[in-house]
Amino acid sequence: MGAPPGYRPSAWVHLLHQLPRADFQLRPVPSGFAPQEQEYQQALLLVAALAGLGLGLSLIFIAVYLIRFCCCRPPEPPGAKSPPPGGGCVTWSCIAALLVGCAGIGIGFYGNSETSDGVSQLSSALLHANHTLSAIDHLVSETVERLGEAVRTELTTLEEVLAQRTELVAAARGARRQAEAVAQRLQELAFWRGVPLSPLQVAEDVSFVEEYRWLAYVLLLLLELLVCLFTLLGLAKQSKWLVIVMTVMSLLVLVLSWGSMGLEAATAVGLSDFCSSPDTYILNLTQEETGLSSDVLSYYFLCNQAVSNPFQQRLTLSQRALANIHSQLQGLEREAVPQFPSAQKPLLSLEETLNATEGDFHQLVALLHCRGLHKDYGAALRGLCEDALEGLLFLLLFSLLSAGALATALCSLPRAWALFPPRNPSASCSGSHLSEPLFPARLETGPPPRSFPGCRRRPH
User: Fold this and answer.
1) Under a CB-based contact definition with an 8 Å cutoff, are residues 172 and 332 in contact?
2) How far is residue 374's CA from residue 353's CA, in Å, rounded to a whole number?
């Protein structure tokens, strides 16, 4: 089957498509895109469940690490005031993990934007295809109505005027029959009329889902960004309550990151299966939803030399009929107008109608060619299988970096805030949060500091 213009499956599509798949009984599942089959659904659910397994393992590791940290610490010697060795390394490892998480957030914003761009390209292609199909329907309706009006008015008037000449009446009736035949053939060209599947409705549904997906990811990215920033602030200010709150929030974001990772992985694998060979699935699905013949659908989806235009015969017969009508009207104008001057007005009106019909007919021939709709099909595939899939892979990388960074931070934060020095109760009176004076006492040569109301100097 011929691929749409400008679309070729990317290396990521081939790579993801080659990944092994299995159902819940761990039996191999073919990688062909078959979302209606239960085994294929189980294979995608198993891919998503791998993220759940990763979440469970990370939570178990964090819990074991924290239990070991809380319950297996060696007792500190009495009077020890210096922090245990490795405290600075723990804090810096937590900061480094949070900075990696911030870098992952930037990757997530880029991936979310790429995914949104791909889906927007898909929606635009569907809207353009709907415009083409609506234009075909409108042209056919307008042309058929114009021909019907000409048959009911001008040709009827012309037959009444030429009633005295039998051969002229026969020529006028021949033009009537050919105009009715052209109208009948043109009605068959509106192949999408009455089809229950509307590209406009599909585009609106896709845009609706994408709007909420984009918003959900933006909120997740902003939530993780706030967690990272406030955690760094808590470490800088050595605020235990802020670090504890951010530890709980980090646990929540960790669960969300693993959940989003499962959805992204399953979606990327399913999308790669679809994008590796989309024509067969799209043809079967469209034929099932619309009831159109396979010849028509193959012509527009494949658009190659092996598939001929299914409307070519009707278009050729209609074009010949219009040329015959034009010749008959010219003959009637030469023979009838000198004897029946009143026939000139309906003949001129018929000529104008015929010229307008021929103009619409040429435009209809251009619209019925497979180039336009096939170009929209290729644009939709490029948006879905290139930009959207690339965005999904960047979101998958974001989720992976986020999960790793938050897991590291959750292991480091309790050790970091345990090393924070206790707050000095008199700091609020002295205006400083430091437990030690800024300068040593032996360097102070000035007068003793004044005491302010509400603050008593404690005796040494």
Assistant:
1) yes
2) 32
Q: For residue 138, what are the contacts with CB-CB under 8 A and spacing of at least 6? A: none
Q: For residues 79 and 155, give the distance between their C-alpha atoms in angstroms, rounded to a whole number.
A: 116
**Quick one: which of 288, 130, 128 has its CA closest to 199?**
130
Burial readout 179-194 (b: 16 or more C-beta within 10 A, e: otherwise) = beebbebbeebbbbee
Helix, strand or coil for residue 35?
A: coil
Burial class (CB in 10 A: 0-12, 13-18, 19+), 440: exposed
Give the SS3 label for residue 445: coil
Nearest-5° Cα angle at 455, 453 to 459: 130
Cα separation of 224 and 404, whole Å? Answer: 13
- pLDDT tens digits along 397-429: 999 999 999 999 888 887 776 667 766 544 444
Q: pLDDT digits over 429-442, tens only? A: 444 443 333 334 33
Q: How far apart are CA 198 and CA 402, in angstroms?
A: 40
> Do 323 and 177 touch, CB atoms closer than 8 A?
no
Q: Output the CA–CA distances (angstroms, integers) from residue 154 to 150, 151, 168, 278, 339, in the order listed.
A: 5, 6, 15, 51, 18
Alpha-carbon span 374 to 372, nearest angstrom? 5
Biggest alpha carbon–alpha carbon distance for the chain: 136
pTM higher than the cut 0.85: no
* Mean per-residue pLDDT of the chain: 84
Using alpha carbons only, what angle is made at residue 415 by residues 410 and 418, rounded to the nearest 5 degrees?
Answer: 125
Task: Determine contact, residues 107/394, Cβ cutoff 8 Å.
Answer: yes
DSSP state of 342: G
Rounded CA-CA distance 255/261 in Å is: 10
Can you tell me the distance from the alpha carbon of 221 to that of 112, in angstroms, rounded to the nearest whole number?
10
